[in-house]
Amino acid sequence: MSTFPRSYPMSGGDDQHSYINNSSYQIAAINSVGEKTKQCIIEKLDLPLNSDPGTFRIADYGCSTGPNTFHVVQSIIDAVKFKQLEYNNEKSLMPLEFQVFFNDQPNNDFNTLFTTQPPSSELEYFSAGVPGSFHGQVLPRNTVHIGHTSYTTHWLSNVPEHVDDKNSPAWNKNYIQCNNSIEEVTKSYKVQFTKDMKLFLEARAEEIVPGGLMIVLGQCLPDGVPLFKTYQGILVDTIGDCLMDMAKSGLTSEEKIGLFTLPAYFPQFSELKTEIEKNRSFTIETMESVSHPLEDIPLSNQFLISMFRAILSTIIKEHFGEDVIDELFDRVAKKLAKYPIDFKVCEKNVTYFILLKRK
């Protein structure tokens, strides 16, 4: 079984232009729910917001290297400050102090994170980096008042057992992802996803104070829709096809490809809800689909390739070596130019917004 750091999907890859496109796609989603986040904090946060409890603590799980995490943190702080004024009827109070924990895998580039942070003169919070997998506890009990994560929970702690075993019915032959085309593969991925969501929620239940909030933004599948019918699924399958073409040209090997499967699982909406409901430490205050600003816009091949290069280049380099990246994505570009994705017939992923409250 292989283990993949969760920072892969959030990292900038080896191409700054790719990073910008990937970051832009995510920040568009984050900004689109900014007002919803603010209203949820105002309506659902029941903690006493005066200077007596001391510091108000926020954690962003899967922070990567910015800049999305800084936008998220500032929007949460703005909402809490507004709530404090409302809670205290605008009486004169000592302003809250804020501390922010930026969490990601130990191999995350925390130096880049903190050097790209806004200048200290503009910061309204104290910063701390917290290396460690969010599938386990990374902070002391009852530390966090508001937790946040975006576009992270579909990434698994491990590639599921047996999907790279040629003798198993769950062998993910000819594919580099769980695209829901092989039933036994999907079952193996679901088992791992169920395990990881359980660990994620149990860890947050330890860290978040009673009455505190956990905000989760991400993507899943509509009920009854397989990943291979979405443009994201089609594109990753195309990357897999191009790897096979490279193997036929002697640039890599089919054996290496057979041992490579992405540690990511996109559950269906009802699956995700079921796993959250199993945890008795949180109430689901809000769980709904939201519109992504780019969901109705056909994305250019250049944008798609740039975005998925940012998402996948590190994990591909780890397995196949750095030399394959340029050749691989050049081939993907040529294949998409010849066989463009028909967005009109593709099913859409669901962008979801979830607000949990710690009991």
From TrEMBL:
This is S-adenosylmethionine-dependent methyltransferase. Pfam families: Methyltransf_7. Gene3D superfamilies: Methyltransferase, alpha-helical capping domain, Vaccinia Virus protein VP39. The lineage of its organism: Eukaryota, Viridiplantae, Streptophyta, Embryophyta, Tracheophyta. GO terms for biological process: methylation. Coiled coil: none annotated. Keywords: Magnesium, Metal-binding, Methyltransferase, S-adenosyl-L-methionine, Transferase. One of its GO terms (molecular function) is methyltransferase activity.
